[in-house]
Amino acid sequence: MPKLDKGAADALVWALLLTAPFWLPHVGGYVELGSRVVIYALAAMALNFLLGYTGVLSFGHAAYFGLGAYGTALTIKLLYPSTPFGMLVGVAVATAAAAIIGPMIVRLRGVYFAMCTIAFGQVFYFIAFRWFSLTHGDDGVSAWHRMPINLGFTTVDILNDNKAFYYFVLAIFAVCAAAMAFLLRSPFGRTLLAIRENERRARFLGIPVDRHIWMSWVISCFFVSVAGSLYALLNDFVDPRALRWDQSGNFVIMAVLGGMRSFWGPLIGAAIFLVLQDYISSETENWMSFIGLFFVLVVLFFPRGVLGIIRRKAVS
Amino acid sequence: MAGYGIGSRRDLAAQMTQLVLFNVFNGLIIGAFYALMALGLSLILNLSGVINFAHGGFLAIGGYLAYTLIPYLGFWGALILSPFLVAGIGVLVERVLIRRLYGRDPLYSLLLTFGLAFMIEDGTRFIWGAQSLPFSIPTWLSKPLSYQFFFLTGYRVFMVALVGAAVAGLFLILNYTRLGIRIRAGTLDLETVSVLGVNVRVLRNLNFGLGIYLAGLAGVLASGMLGLQPTVGDNLIMPSFIAIIVGGLGSLPGTLLGGLLIGVASGVTSVFFPSASEAVIYVMMAAVLIVRPRGLLGEEGRF
Known about the structure:
heterodimer; A: two-stranded antiparallel sheet; 14 helices; 1% strand; B: mainly alpha; globular
């Protein structure tokens, strides 16, 4: 296959994303699916900031995704009907939660870190499930919807216009992706890579490893909560499944499937996973088995992910 | 009138004591389940570095197999045979799937067992149906032992006794049999154990089976109390993780202690703040992580 250089790959990704609402219906998709892919891609890329670039295994990112979603939904429903305000509150709440939980877990490593993130993630699941008067438990937060965005000179009707909402999501995705790329290129990002490659050496160089992992954790949770907030807006609804542990597993499999060592990997993983899930769940009731089987097959046969395989082929 | 007042106060006190006792005992039972499950998870985690997400699934299989076997073998036969069958499935799964992932990033084994958990839940639903199934236990076990302490049904006492016996058996195996000693040695330093001529692959295989056996046993016992659903393991797996974290990674006595502790804590909390009975175990976990990140009985510097 022809070797793509970095600039060309970026251009290709953006071209595909920008034109998605126009070609998606022609290949059997629909615009909401496109929005969902972009939202999950943002979540998986945010997770990969921690997983692929810092080398820390979090299995509890659904909690912050869900907090962002609940924060946005409840703010719009109960406090003030404004989409940007709701997103701001949701993201702030989720990031604050991550910042508080961070110091308790950043000293842990490997499987222990993973276990604690799972367990802490479940706290928020139980809160959402149990606090019926606020969250309506298993029924979820409904009877609200995203509000058109007033830019002063014009109003963007993201409520009724699918394509407008897609581009709204894509614009936020673009800002977040650019911010993450910028962070990874900065000295801070390079330090994270150094920690991933050899934590002990990084420590000997005088890098405060725990603090860097905490920062990476909070940044990662911040971006995943932005995705969660958009997810609530997409569905005009949120229920506790948004923050259950299987959601965390989905983020991880997306990152792994696309390729953890590459910036765009999680985007590709999210696209493959969601299209597959969409197809399987419309074909059979036993979609859980197939998704489970999919996890097993990916782990056994594609541990480097799609981009990892392509890159290895390009090198050899 | 005064006597009446005192009497009613005494009644109230007696009722309260009974309520607290009931919940402590209830917590102990739940804690015993957590511990049984967490011990299995801990065994596998310590020797192989694998977090077995599918543990709850194996628990469900244990319950369902017992349900299927009861018409042929009766309760006792099912109780004995079912955990062994589940362990057999576990050994097979380890051999075919999990063995390939040793030595790789723990991420992969986590994802694999995650997928397995999905498949098992869906599989049990496919075979036995999604609706809750009744699980019959011998009638003489379901009678209360005393009318004063109405909560002491025979089955509950029997369950605690059986869990106790299983835990005692596990520690006897680990301390006095060659297999157990090798497992413990492997937990500390697998490489040396391998150099000394122990077949580590077989060791990990058997160890996995042992862990799954405990899950299967917990499954049979839990179905007698909670009934059978495909998701029966779901509610037990998170507390089992917390039992391990609270007790300390790498320490089996710690895991046992952690399980009982969180069980009793959530039992007692449910008397005073029913809605916080789940939250309290997470609070305990946070407290342990802040004060003593390696867990109550965990070794320093293991993780």
